[in-house]
Amino acid sequence: MKKREIQLSRMWKYFVDATAEIIEQEGVENVTIRKVADKAGYNSATIYNYFSEISHLIFFASMRFMKSYTDEVALYIQKGKDPIEKYLLAWECFCNYSFKQPQIFHAVFIMDLGDHPEKLLKHYYQIYPNDLINIPEDLKLILFERNMSKRGRSLLEVALKEGYIKEENIDSINELTILIWEGIFTNILNNRKSYEFQEATKIVMNYISEIVMNANIFNFQKWDYTKSQSSIS
User: Where would one find coiled-coil regions in this protein (predicted)?
Assistant: First the structure.
């Protein structure tokens, strides 16, 4: 890496780490350009030399809290005996973490980041490559995808290739599962429901199980969430 690139990367990290510290201490909703500048020891104008808008800064800082999820989801998926079980386990892990950290997951997956948010995700992993250590190559392709629909479809296409689902059912399974999660997630994010994360995960996983089972699944035993041994304590 050239000297200029090293300097840019160092400055970039100063602001991201300062933002992450504010998020940890005060919450995402209390992040401001002035607070980040003060904590990093620079003026507010300097930040805009590295980030075009505050949503990008919040996104990158929120990604600093995602490593425990990305490490865990790889372990979850490995426990699945077939593509459908892997799909359900991936959703279970996602639900557990997103319902525990709704502000973080909103910033990463839902918040408006303008054009080409995948480029921001790719840039983050270029700056913090250690976040991808021990992540299987096939899972990295999914983690580089911010779009929820594309992430879910990637796993379902594996199930299609192995004959577990019909092609005409992929879109309905994918869209319905995302809508179920978004509904519960939005209620939690907006303080309309006060579910514990385990309860919220159970509700969503029960619905997702029914969606999958009603979509002409072949050679698959019904997912029993209550017997799952992979839930996070």
Answer: none
Place of tokens 């392709």: 141
For 122-133, how does the pLDDT look when each residue is reduced to its tens digit (9 = 90+)? Answer: 888 888 888 887
Asked if 198 and 98 count as a contact pair (C-beta separation under 8 A), the reply is no
**Do 10 and 99 share a domain, yes or no?**
no
DSSP letter assigned to residue 82? S
Measure the CA–CA gap between 30 and 51, rounded to whole angstroms.
18
Distance of CA 119 to the CA centre of its chain: 15
Predicted TM-score (pTM) of this structure: 0.85
φ, ψ at 110 (rounded to 5°): -120, -35
| Residue 49 belongs to domain spanning | 3-63
Q: How far apart are CA 11 and CA 6, in angstroms?
A: 9
Q: DSSP secondary structure string, 143-182?
A: HT---HHHHHHHHHHHHHHTTSS-GGGHHHHHHHHHHHHH
